[in-house]
Structure formats: C-alpha cells, structure tokens
Amino acid sequence: MSAFNAIGADREIEDEEFTPGIEPQPTWCPGCGDFGVLNALKQAMPKVGRNPDEVAVFTGIGCSGKLNSYFESYGFHTIHGRSLPVARAAKLANPGVEVIAAGGDGDGYGIGGNHFIHTARENHDMTYIVFNNEIFGLTKGQTSPTSPKGHKSKTQPSGSAKDPIRPLTLSLSAGASYIARTAAVNPNQAAEILAEAIQHDGFAHVDFLTQCPTWNKDAKQYVPYTDIQDSDEYGHDINDRAEAAEAMYDAESKLHEGEILTGRFYVDDERPSYTEEKQAIGEMPEQPLAERYFDEDTEWDRSYQLLEKHK
Ligand SMILES: Cc1ncc(C[n+]2csc(CCOP(=O)(O)OP(=O)(O)O)c2C)c(N)n1
Ligand code: SF4
Ligand SMILES: [Mg+2]
C-alpha cells in the first residue's frame, strides 16, 4: 500500500496485503495468543472487502496494543485505556473508514472501562476487540479485571480476593449491539466472527480469549472449547436479549471451571448507530467532516467516495 492512495476499486483482496512490508516482525512471545488475533483479523479483511487504505486500527497500551504495528492499515497507538474515544472521533469525522479498536483486558475492562461502557451505550459504529488473557501481560503478569478469583500474581501473592468482571454481561447491559466471544485457538471461528463484527452497523464487541504462556502459566489454553452455534446443548436465540443474557452468564460462570463457550451471544441489527441518531436530530451532517488527500486531480476533498463505496 502506498500511503494516501485514492480509494481502491472493488477487487479481490488477499489477507497478505495486511502484512506490513517495512515493519519489524511481531515481538510477541512464542505461543502468545495475540498472534491468533492478528491472523484472524487479516483473514477477516478479504471477507469484508476492505483494502488497507480503508481501515484504521486504534490500540491501547499492552502487548495487545502492538497489533497495529503488525497490521497494514492506518493506525493510532493511543494511551492506556483510551483507544475507544480516539476511535470514536475518527469514525464520526470520517464515517466511510472501517474503524477497529483493540486492546487488552486491563486496558479495556480496567483503566478504560468507562469508555467501554459509554461507547457501547452510544452504539458507535466500530469493532472493539479485547485481547482477554486474564492478566496484565506487558507489565509482567499482574492481576487484571478478568483474572479468576484466587489467581496468584506478584500484585496478589495470596490470590485475588475479587470475582472477575463479566465482560459479555457488562457489554449487553451497557448497550453493545453485537457481542461475541472467540479464542486464539479457534482460528476459523475467530476470522468469521471478526468479519461479522466488522460488517455489523453499530458497536460490535468481541471478547477474544488469548493465552499468555509467559506470565499466566496457570491459565487454561482455552481448549477444548464449544462453539455455542454448533452445539444442541447451548444454542439460544441471539436476537433475544433475555436469552442472550442467560447464555452469557452461563459462559462467564463456566470459563474458570474449564468449560470454554465461544460464539455469537447477542446481535441487534435494528438499533441505530450513534451517527444515525445524531443525523436524525440534525446534529450531524450527512457528508463526512474529514478531508483527505487523494491525488493530484482531486487533492483535498471530503471522503465521499469512501462513504459511497461502503454504504
Ligand atoms: C496510564 C497508564 N497506567 C499504567 C500503565 C502501565 N501499563 C502498561 S500496559 C499495562 C497493562 C496491560 O495489560 P492489558 O491491558 O491486559 O494488556 P496485555 O499486555 O495483557 O495485552 C499497564 C498497567 C500505562 N502505560 N499507562
Ligand atoms: S507477555 Fe504474554 S501477552 Fe505479552 S507477548 Fe508474551 S505471551 Fe503474549
Ligand atoms: Mg491482558
């Protein structure tokens, strides 16, 4: 990709286009689940028909925050817990851009938890991937909001006295309109779920289970897992809020008992996004606010083409 290209024509897109040519190879530890997110995201892009120029990835701080260094697209490595407000601004200014925010469980459910709740509540049109390894990885294994009760770490040597957060349930009550859980050990499902989340109009939250073999050796590697959509035992109506809440509670209770339930938990295709709500009350224009440099012929212009292409 050359920076500041014109909008790409419709064409077949290869996942390898999302591998940067000049960036260093990932510095994640061998066996890290973060590789699973990167690969799934690359595989999702041909499914959604976006080329690298049409995507912007916003990350927080953590091992997970390195995602956009290894993924060819526009990117912004923000500060700890703050990927969502930056991503929201970008989407509001340039609605044709495919906005993806990503970060760790500490980043998104801890320090950035308030942004998570309110971005879900407002149903901003973006995908939010949370790398859930149940610890602070980058800072060497401290207890995080998703660490199980009793989990021992340098910050909680006698074991955590706290119940872990329930991210799926929290997301539902906050207002996210697409909620799924997948795992790095399940690459095909992960790529499908990310593609769906990206195509969803509204706030799509994917809790992505990622093993950290370096600092969380006690953690399960998230196998064996059950895909709730493939299971007669667990299938529920993903459009039914009450049934989704029950399925989420079940999955979150079983996670630390060694039963890993993954799949789509809730989808609401009817709810308008924040941009649509603001346009409906006349507080946002139909045309993109952002200007973008295309080429010598058109120079700076608002990103109408991008918006038109992906309407
Ligand atoms: C404001 C602020 N507080 C604390 C830190 C230190 N810090 C960096 S990454 C991190 C936690 C990372 O954990 P998580 O978000 O789960 O990401 P992971 O490394 O596990 O992918 C912390 C506390 C920081 N960079 N900025
Ligand atoms: S410390 Fe853990 S989360 Fe970070 S790169 Fe290594 S294995 Fe991955
Ligand atoms: Mg983490």
From TrEMBL:
Residue intervals passing through the bilayer: none
Keywords: Oxidoreductase, Pyruvate
The EC number(s) this enzyme carries: 1.2.7.1, 1.2.7.11, 1.2.7.3
Gene3D superfamilies in the cross-refs: 3.40.50.970
UniProt key word Transferase: no
Cytoplasm as UniProt keyword: no
Residue ranges of the region described as Disordered: 140-165
GO MF annotation list: 2-oxoglutarate synthase activity; pyruvate synthase activity; thiamine pyrophosphate binding
Cofactor(s) listed in the protein's UniProt record: [4Fe-4S] cluster
Domain Thiamine pyrophosphate enzyme TPP-binding, residue spans: 61-208
Pfam families: TPP_enzyme_C
Protein name as annotated: Pyruvate:ferredoxin oxidoreductase or related 2-oxoacid:ferredoxin oxidoreductase, beta subunit
UniProt source species: Halapricum desulfuricans
Organism lineage: Archaea, Methanobacteriati, Methanobacteriota, Stenosarchaea group, Halobacteria
